[in-house]
Write a structure and sequence with these properties.
It is a single chain. This protein is an alpha+beta fold. The chain has 19 helices and ten strands. It has helices at about 5-15, 45-50, 50-60, 70-85, 110-115, 125, 150-155, 165-180, 200-205, 220-235, 250-255, 270-275, 320-330, 330-340, 350-355, 355-360, 365-375, 385-400, 410-420; strands spanning about 35-40, 60-70, 90-95, 130, 135, 140-145, 145-150, 265, 285-290, 305-310. The strands form three sheets. It has a five-stranded mixed sheet with strand order 2-1-3-10-6. It has a three-stranded antiparallel sheet with strand order 8-7-9. The chain is globular, with a radius of gyration of 22 Å.
C-alpha cells in the first residue's frame, strides 16, 4: 500500500493547485469530431450520458456511448486492446488496470492543462489512474465499505457505534446480552475474495500490507498474523451468527436484513437493499451507518472498488477524448447527479462532494462517513495475477475459519509461498 504514496503525492503536487471547474477549450478546436466511449453498464454512467448536451454544445464534439454488462466487460476491453481502433475512451475496473495498461494513453499534461484538480480524488481511488508514475486514467466510479448498524439494538444495549475493532467486540457482546441478534455478520467462506475485504482492513490497521516494496508477500508478518487471529477470533467469541464459517457476503447481508445481526461491514451501495421492503424486514429508521472501525491507534481504512476512464492509445481523437474526460470528471457533474431528485445515484469520488453539506443532507451523512475512511485510506495494489492471489488468500482464511487449519502462521506462510511462485 505505502509504495504508491509517492506517485499520488506527485500527482497532487502537479495538479493540486489547479482547482478550476471544467471549461471547454477556447476556440472549439475539436468541433466535428466524435468520441466513442466503451463503458460498463451502469445507471450512473447513463445519467452522465443524459447530460451530454451541455458538453456537446460547448465543444462541438459528438459523444457516443456503448455499454457492456459487467460479466463481459473485461473481454471487451481485452479485445479493444488487441484489435484496437473502435473506442476513444474506455472504463476500466481497478483490478484490470495493470493487465490492460497497453490499452491506455498517458494523459497527464492534457489533464493538467484543463485544470483538473487531482487532489480532490481520494488517494485510494486515484492510485488506480497512475501507472509507472504517469497518469493514464481518472476515477469516475468508486465504492467504499461502511459499518451499517441497527440503531434500535445499539440503543437498547446502551452502546454507541464502535470506532475501533476492539470496541466492536465490546458492543457486539452487549447487544447479544440484551437481544436475540448476533453482534455482527461477517463473511468467512470462499467466493471471489469476499472474505478478504474486512481482513485487509485489519491487516492495514495492524501496520501490515499484502506486499513489501519489492513486491514480495508481506502478509505473513507479525502484523498479518495479528490481523488474521483477530478476524478468526470473532468466530470463537461467538459474536457472529451460527454457520458464519461458510458465509459469503450475501449471507452476511441477508442476516442483517432479516434482523438476525446488529452490525454489518459492507459496500455502501448495499444500503438500498437493507431497507427495501421487498427484501428486508428493516425500516430506514432502524439502520445507521458510520465509517469502518479502525485498529486502536491506527488510521481508518476502507477496501475500495474503483472504475477509471482513460483514453485509448489507438484513438484518432485523443484531444477530443481528453476534453471529454475533463467534463466527465468535473465534480459539478457528479454533484448534479447526486442531487437529482429523480435519481438515486449515491456514488461520489470527489472529496468536495463527499464532504458537501447538501449532499450529506440528502443522503443522511453517508458520504461524510465515506470521506472519513477515505481521508486516510490508500487502497490496494492489484497486479496481473490478482485473481489467483485472491484465491490463495481466501482459501487460507476459509480454512482457518472452518477449523480445517488451526496454525495461523503456517497458513499464511504457505499462502505466501504459493503467491511468491506466481509473482
Amino acid at each position: 500500500m505505502k509504495r504508491f504514496t509517492s506517485a499520488i503525492a506527485i500527482a497532487a503536487s502537479l495538479y493540486g493547485a489547479q482547482a478550476l471547474a471544467w471549461e471547454a477549450t477556447e476556440g472549439r478546436p475539436y468541433e466535428g469530431q466524435t468520441v466513442n466511449v466503451l463503458a460498463v453498464k451502469s445507471s450512473q454512467f447513463e445519467a452522465h450520458e443524459a447530460r451530454l448536451a451541455e458538453f456537446e454544445d460547448a465543444t462541438g464534439i459528438d459523444v457516443v456511448y456503448d455499454y457492456v454488462p459487467f460479466p463481459n466487460m473485461k473481454e471487451a476491453l481485452t479485445t479493444e486492446m488487441v484489435a484496437g481502433g473502435d473506442y476513444d475512451v474506455v472504463s476500466v475496473m481497478d483490478q484490470w488496470v495493470t493487465s490492460l495498461q497497453m490499452l491506455m494513453e498517458p494523459i497527464g499534461p492534457e489533464i493538467e492543462a484543463q485544470g483538473t484538480d487531482l487532489s480532490d480524488f481520494p488517494a485510494a481511488h486515484m492510485r488506480h489512474g497512475m501507472l509507472n508514475g504517469e497518469l493514464v486514467g481518472l476515477p469516475v466510479r468508486g465504492h467504499v465499505q461502511l459499518l451499517f448498524y441497527r440503531k434500535d439494538l445499539l440503543e437498547a444495549a446502551g452502546v454507541t457505534p464502535p470506532t475501533t475493532w476492539e470496541g466492536l467486540v465490546t458492543a457486539a457482546k452487549a447487544i447479544q446480552d440484551s437481544t436475540d441478534a448476533a453482534g455482527i455478520a461477517l463473511p468467512y467462506g470462499k467466493l471471489n475474495g469476499q472474505n478478504l475485504m474486512v481482513w485487509i482492513n485489519l491487516l492495514w490497521g495492524n501496520g501490515g500490507d499484502l506486499f513489501d516494496a519489492e513486491g514480495n508477500p508481506a502478509f505473513n508478518s507479525a502484523a498479518g498474523v495479528a490481523a488474521t487471529e483477530t478476524y478468526i477470533s470473532y468466530l470463537a467469541e461467538e459474536i457472529v451468527p451460527a454457520g458464519s464459517a461458510v458465509f459469503v457476503e450475501q449471507d452476511a447481508v441477508n442476516s442483517f436484513k432479516q434482523g438476525n445481526s446488529a452490525m454489518l461491514p459492507v459496500w455502501w451501495w448495499v444500503r438500498s437493499q437493507l431497507t427495501d421492503p421487498e427484501q428486508s424486514t428493516l425500516t430506514p429508521e432502524q439502520v445507521g451507518f458510520t465509517a469502518l472501525p479502525s485498529v486502536e491507534g491506527a488510521d481508518r481504512t476502507t477496501f475500495t472498488n474503483t472504475w477509471i476512464f482513460g483514453v485509448t492509445q489507438e484513438s484518432d481523437n485523443k484531444g477530443a477524448a481528453t476534453e471529454f474526460l475533463g467534463w466527465l470528471t468535473d465534480p459539478a457533474l457528479e454533484r448534479d447527479v447526486l442531487m437529482d431528485p429523480d435519481l438515486s445515484e449515491v456514488v461520489a469520488v470527489h472529496m468536495s462532494n463527499l464532504t458537501d453539506p447538501e449532499v450529506n443532507a440528502r443522503w443522511g451523512g453517508m458520504h461524510q462517513a465515506a470521506a472519513d475512511a477515505l481521508a486516510t485510506a490508500e487502497g490496494i495494489e492489484f497486479g496481473d495475477n490478482w485473481p489467483r492471489i485472491a484465491l490463495i488468500l481466501e482459501t487460507a482464511i476459509s480454512s482457518l475459519a472452518s477449523g480445517e487449519t488451526t496454525d495461523v502462521q503456517a497458513a499464511l506462510d504457505n499462502a505466501a509461498e504459493e503467491i511468491a511462485a506466481i509473482r
